[in-house]
Amino acid sequence: MVRKIEQMVQFEEQGVKTVLVDLEGSIEDIVGAVNGADAVVFTAGSGGRTGADKTMMIDFDGAIKSMEAAKQARVKRFVIVSAIGVKDRDKWLSSAPYYSAAKYYADVWLEKSGLDYTIIRPGGLTNDPGTGKVKVAVDLEHGQIPREDVASAIYAALENDHTIGKAFDMIGGETPVEDAL
Asked: Measured between alpha carbons, how far is 58 from 3 in angstroms, rounded to an integer?
C-alpha cells in the first residue's frame, strides 16, 4: 500500500503488487487494500521533516485506522514498526515528544485490539546493508540498525508465532535475526 502514484509505478516496475491508499483517507479505503491479506505490516511514518500534526495523523491515527481496517477485513495478524524507547516516557525524544507519544499510543492501542500483534521497536534506522544480525530485548539502550535488518525481522516475525503478543526493542547486534526472535 502506497500513497503516491510515483511509488506505485516504481514498485509495479519491480513486479510488486501495490494499491494506492492514503492513511489520512477513510478506513473503508484501507479495508479495500487489506481485504484478503494474511497479515498487515504497518511501517508508515510521517517522516522527520513534518510537524506534530502529520505525525499524529500518520503515525498514530493512520496506525489505528489500519488496525480497525484489519479487524473489519478479518485479518488477524498485525505487525507494527514502532520506535525504540517509546514504552518508557523517560526515554521519549526530547526533540519530538509528539513522535514518541504517537508511537507509544499506537502500540498501546494495538496491544488492546484483539489482533495477533507483534510490535518491533527498532533503534535509529540506517541505509547501510543489512548484516542479518540483531540484538533484541524488551528494553535496550538506543542504537542503530539497518532498515534491511528490520525488514528481515518483520518477515521472521510473520513466520514465527512465538512473536505474537510480544513487543521488543531491536538494534544491530551479533545474533541472527531468526535466533534473536
From this structure: 11
The answer to pTM > 0.70 is: yes
**Class level of CATH domain 38-180:** alpha beta
Strand duo 166-172 + 133-137: pairing: antiparallel
Cell triple for residue 8? 506505485
- What average pLDDT does the segment 112-126 reach? 97
Question: What confidence score (pLDDT) does residue 110 get?
Answer: 98
Q: What is the pLDDT of residues 75-103, one digit of tens each?
A: 999 999 999 989 988 878 777 888 999 99
Q: Where are the domains of the chain?
A: 38-180
Residue of 99, 104, 105, 117 marked active site: 99
> For the chain, where are the E strands, in sequence order?
39-42, 77-81, 116-122, 124-126, 133-137, 144-146, 166-172, 175-176
Alpha-carbon torsion (31, 106, 49, 142), positive or negative: negative
Whether residue 98 lies in the annotated active site: no
